[in-house]
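chain below, 633 aa
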Amino acid sequence: MKKNNTEKKTPWWMSWKNLGVLVGLVASGLGLLASMFGNLGCPIDLAWISIIICGIPIVWEAGEGLIMRRDIKAGVLVSMALIASIIIGEEFAAGEIAFIMQLGEILEHLTVSKARAGIERLVQLTPRTARVVSGGREHIIAADAVKIGDLLRVLPGETIPVDGIICSGQTSIDQSIMTGESMPEDKGKDDEVYSGTVNQYGAFDMKATRVGEDSSLQRMIRLVKSANTNKNKIVRLADRWATWIVAIALVSAILTWVISGEIIRAVTILVVFCPCALVLATPTAIMAAIGNAAKHGFLVREGDALERLAPVTHIIFDKTGTLTCGTPRVKAVKSIIPGVSDAQLLQLAAQAESRSEHPLGKAISSHNSQSATVNQESTDKFDTYPGLGVQAILDGKYILVGNADLFQSKGIVIPQSLAMDIRNHRATGSTIVFIGIDQQMAGYIVLSDVLRDDAPSAMSQLQQRLKLTPMLLTGDHQHTASHIAGLIGIQHVHADCTPEDKLRVIDRVQQEAGRVCMIGDGINDAPALKKADVGIAMGGIGSDIAADAADIVLINDALIELPHLMQLAQKMMKTIRWNIVAAMALNFAAILLAMTGILTPVIGALVHNAGSVVVIAHSAFLLKWQPRPSKLN
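prediction:
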């Protein structure tokens, strides 16, 4: 899997359009300040700066939506309050309303996601050419011109252009784009290979079976394009309730005007009914929560991701690179030859593998500092067998390191006495590498992916404290998946999953059980990250494409921070609800005072905007919020 490089975030104001909005907001604020102090000798009320810069766009957008689409949003009530204030000569009240609403729009804009490059990155992985073998000669043609049944040749390091079956040759294929598994898969005659995967070592010939739009990579691109359709954007509260707010405001204003005969009271009601607090309630809390999440290693890419995260009931994990570290490590060494200790056997294998490019060979050669400093020049001879192993001559000794097929081809018998131990190790998902010395079986090395240190603690808190249901979706084999799941207490396991399988599982959970959060790291996880209600990508080890598909990126790969993020999302939603209750309570109190004539439009605007101040101050507490310490280990 490709290491993800954390992208440089361009500041919001680094565009002419946004810079213009910011300058306009500053000018409007200065104009309102000048208006408060007698306009500094200016013959016109400087509050008009705010009315023109901030107010006209609000009125235009509200009018367009109302007339063209018959869409009543919060802007309709704001426009009514603006126009009514201007008609009765209360320019400061109109300017203040326009300024607050424009500020809310900017805060909301800051929580909106940036454009994605994930699909474009996937398209770039599509091979452009293919080697067709015809009449004993190679011809390079466009990959999209390959036909079913064509014989193709793939050299080491090349990306496989279409799906097919190997006709001849031995190799190892990096299939992480499809399965998410970091260790390459050994392939030989009659094995299936997939487009977009990478041939690491040996050359081979293959027969094309699925080409063009039917190939595996093109199917994944279509999945990523379509999987986001279920993520409905959160409609802001002010717009959700706009029709009722407008109706209540109009009825209250008209009745007050009719009963009292004073239009200024009616205008004051429209001013204090203006939904500034509702507009600010959500974005201010989201921005504060995003700031808090950043301190704990989360990059929130979608503004409403935390809103969708709060009601999540199921949390789904990929295995390799997410729950595990994603790289093989030496787990055990067993020597069966007299006079050679386990450490010496490991040393010999490490020296033999010192020139290998295979992930298993690299894991063996770098297991300890002694092995890592092996002098490659002391190796008299080195040969590699793609998909099988390596052989080397070290100080006159013939060393063979590889799988059972390599040993069988060399006529070296693996003792039956080792069968039980080997079976037990493989049952835990480990890989066995055999070592031979001078045509004699010498022992074996056990390698496996390692569970992240913080995974058990994180899983315990997610289940016991937050009452979430964890699930494991992986392209790895059932016995490996079950072993990892058993170590951390996950009961729901789906193994041997393709990207399509993961989508089906997520869709079923969404239909039957509730909201889903998906956590993954590989290219093969991109469709699932899009499909889930919230997608979280591992940012340290994960691919750029997974990060692009996700709503949130965990920069430092610390799973132990996940419970904090889940609780933060829930706390944010509580904050939003309290924001609304407090602000609306103040507004209704102001309405009663406006009906009695105690409040004027200007004082009403100030009292009403006090609700906005309360909202901002209350949201700010989220920046330093921490959950209560857990008593769980």
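Residues 1-9, 112-119, 369-377 have pLDDT under 50 and may be disordered. The first helix runs from residue 16 to 36.
thats it, cya
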